[in-house]
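Q: I'm building a small set of examples for a reading group on sequence design. Run inverse folding on the following structure and report the sequence directly after it, with nothing in between.
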């Protein structure tokens, strides 16, 4: 029953996102564009109309049958803030109710500083103050680490050097807004489910490569969290006994072999880069035809492909979506990735689709904003009291817009 409700939530979110992006649409057009049955669209839009999130508009001209009624958003003024937090910078976006990114800023950020959380508060305070939406529905925050629950938002992150940081409570108190906090890859997976290449699939594996390696898992339409909110720690899959030390303290983790720092470390060791070289420098060498640089990326790709084959065999996804900062060098990763993956998955899964998505940094923050935008359909109650406050703000926004139209 719970998973059925989650699938319905995703369908409702997809309907809102599509109408928000394309404008008023008929039920038949929605069914065609979302690749679902007309009966499902009718059921989904009936609930959205009852909830006051959609309204029926004028009819479209008939070509012989009954004229089709167009459906539109009850409010277009709602917006949410999404925040991507990493060790060296913070990206903040404002997203419309359909998930469209309206504006984006990136500020330098030192997560290890004693004043890091206070600095994050000030970054968000400045951003919120320049919004044209009143009220904003809420703030979603994506964190590279474990989060106890979206509604409370206590964070443990080895990448940020944070232990038991009550981030959600602090942001709510300082900004006087609903705040939802989630593992960044889980939040990104939600955005992919609603707006990206995972839309329309109920079983998906989202893999991110870059500074770290992560995974988000959609099973039967549900974005999984695990017992402690840390499902999908793909980068900490043990690969090589007594291998390089990982930031988690273990040895030989996948991330310690194919993460950005690991690849740069190996490039320095081979003499391809100076000590202050970067992954961008290494890619430039590969672009110029340097075989050593290309071999490093291909080796990382082979390790990733073999590890991912195990995940595919275990989870049986319909599609794998690969994205993250690392995909800018994907042609060089692919040389090792494809043969390693296809040879290691069991025969009936060798045709698994791997969609590599062109990287946009603000997609992480869009995922965080999705935490807020999806709360009207939170059948699981993951958003708790914060979700209730978001829904109240959405209702205020809708009533305000309707009053302005009436005037």
């Amino acid at each position: 029953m719970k998973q059925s409700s989650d699938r319905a939530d995703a369908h409702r979110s997809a309907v809102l996102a599509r109408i928000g992006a394309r404008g008023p649409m008929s039920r038949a057009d929605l069914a065609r564009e979302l690749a679902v049955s007309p009966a499902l669209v009718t059921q989904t839009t009936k609930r959205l109309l009852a909830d006051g999130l959609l309204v029926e508009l004028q009819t479209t001209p008939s070509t012989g049958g009954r004229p089709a009624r167009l459906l539109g958003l009850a409010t277009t003024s709602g917006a949410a803030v999404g925040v991507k937090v990493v060790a060296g910078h913070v990206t903040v976006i404002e997203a419309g109710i359909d998930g469209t990114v309206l504006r984006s800023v990136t500020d330098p950020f030192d997560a290890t500083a004693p004043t890091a959380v206070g600095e994050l508060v000030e970054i968000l305070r400045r951003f919120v103050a320049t919004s044209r939406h009143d009220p904003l529905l809420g703030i979603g925050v994506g964190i590279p680490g474990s989060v106890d629950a979206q509604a409370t938002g206590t964070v443990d992150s080895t990448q940020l050097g944070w232990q038991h940081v009550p981030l959600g409570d602090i942001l709510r108190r300082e900004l006087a807004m609903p705040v939802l906090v989630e593992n960044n890859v889980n939040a990104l997976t939600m955005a992919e489910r609603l707006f990206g290449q995972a839309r329309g699939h109920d079983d998906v594996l989202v893999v991110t490569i870059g500074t770290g390696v992560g995974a988000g898992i959609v099973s039967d339409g549900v974005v999984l969290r695990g017992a402690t909110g840390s499902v999908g720690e793909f980068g900490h899959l043990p690969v090589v006994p007594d291998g390089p030390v990982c930031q988690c303290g273990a040895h030989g983790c996948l991330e310690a072999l194919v993460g950005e720092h690991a690849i740069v470390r190996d490039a320095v060791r081979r003499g391809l880069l100076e000590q202050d070289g970067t992954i961008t420098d290494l890619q430039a060498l590969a672009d110029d035809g340097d075989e050593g640089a290309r071999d490093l990326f291909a080796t990382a790709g082979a390790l990733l492909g073999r590890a991912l084959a195990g995940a595919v065999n275990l989870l049986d996804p319909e599609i794998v979506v690969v994205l993250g900062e690392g995909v800018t060098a994907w042609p060089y990763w692919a040389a090792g990735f494809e043969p390693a993956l296809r040879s290691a998955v069991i025969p009936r899964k060798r045709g698994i689709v791997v969609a590599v998505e062109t990287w946009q940094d603000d997609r992480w923050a869009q995922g965080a904003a999705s935490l807020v935008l999806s709360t009207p359909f939170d059948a699981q109650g993951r958003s708790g009291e914060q979700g209730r406050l978001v829904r109240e703000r959405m209702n205020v926004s809708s009533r305000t817009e309707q009053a302005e139209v009436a005037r």
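The chain has three domains: 2-73, 79-188+362-406, 200-356.
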